[in-house]
Design goal:
Helix content is 47%, strand content 17%. It contains 16 helices and 13 strands. The protein has a 7-stranded mixed sheet, covered by helices on one side. Strands 9-10-8-11-12-13 form a 6-stranded mixed sheet, with helices on both faces. The longest helix is centred in the middle third of the chain and has 23 residues.
Amino acid sequence: MTLPDSDDTIVAISTPPGYGGIGVIRISGKQAFTVANAIIDTTVNVIDAKSHTIHHGYVRGAQTGTITDEVLVALFRAPNSYTGEDVIEISAHGNPQILKQIVGLAIDSGARPAAAGEFTMRAFLSGRIDLVQAESVADLIAAESAAFQQAALYQLSGKLSAYIGTIRSQLLDIGALFEAYTDFPEEHIPQQQQAELLAKLDDVTASLSRLASSYRHGEIIRAGIQVPIVGPPNAGKSSLFNAILAEERAIVTDIPGTTRDTISEKIDIEGIAVRFVDTAGLREAADQIEAAGVERSRREIDAANLLITIFDIANTSAAEIMSWLRKMPGKAVICVLNKIDLVPKSTLDTYTTALAFHYPVLVSATTLAGVDTVVARIASVIRDSIPISSANVNILTNQRHLVAVQNAILSLTEARAKLEQGESFELMAFDLRQATNSLEEILGKITNDDLLAEIFSRFCIGK
């Protein structure tokens, strides 16, 4: 795949679509100042103005001279800009028509429309940021939770890259020793030096293994967790769903089988995006539509990180609840006993004793009693699942990085086995180069046009 021409001067709206108090147009490239000077009247000549200054002005059509908008123009000269090139940022009124007109004037004056993610790609290609930092820009924009936001900021700061770079340097040092021995293929490595090399390989492999293991937490930080609310019909699933969200999101009636399709909403708990899913009651379906809803409920259960099982204790025996819970897949389950406002305390005591192993939460989705306890229980599960902060920790949240780290570990394992078996130093040096290359792929020191095009196509236009 061919990348966009980096010699062109590009332009795009950088603020989100729609109306707002302000809209920003970004221009980047060798002719950025010339393009801006052609369409903006200011009290200074833009081409001669100092970097990192802001000027008041008016955007005018070059042909008609008609004023399009009153603007502020920020100037950033290479290499001290977001892209590492000359950059102009025009702050205009946030009317989509005005912003489109300004972009059109810039195009008429020599710029071309920017491709998705092209500004950040230019920052990467100019060496201002590495590929981990570039990907973290998209993550920061898309983050739906505080934890993912903090993880993206950490990666954008370059700290994860620095950690990977340190491991890469260790690999280069070990690889240099192997390369040196390739000049003397007939010599055997002294036993003490072999032990030292094995120890160094083990240390690096351990560091990479910890990094790979962090992805289990990183995936939760990135994607959040899915929590279906499941149970028999008319147990109060939709009522609990609405109570947790504090809004009437799902239809609630006394008729069993009211919920025919899944409904989902996300909220932030402990910094993690938690997607609650209201599901159809699990029973033998009365018709094809209900059957489709029940099948979707089962799919949600299969994909869940955590299940909330809810039961109407006014109409369900403890034995029936136990039977239900035994049928649940091997996932974390929060057992909720609903409609506690309809039964006496003695009944509650009987149920909590019978179901003590499942630590049931007593709830009235109608009066909201116990709903906070359900949320607190979910928060506890999240804290147990992610026992580390995402703000100041080297943690993988990107599957591309995980695959590269796993490849590096595999190469190091091969090198270690060959060293123990006394095989060719040339083969060991090759394995070390492969491991190093895997880490360099993460940082973007080794890359190709197809990979870059795939990564930056995920960005929005204007970033």
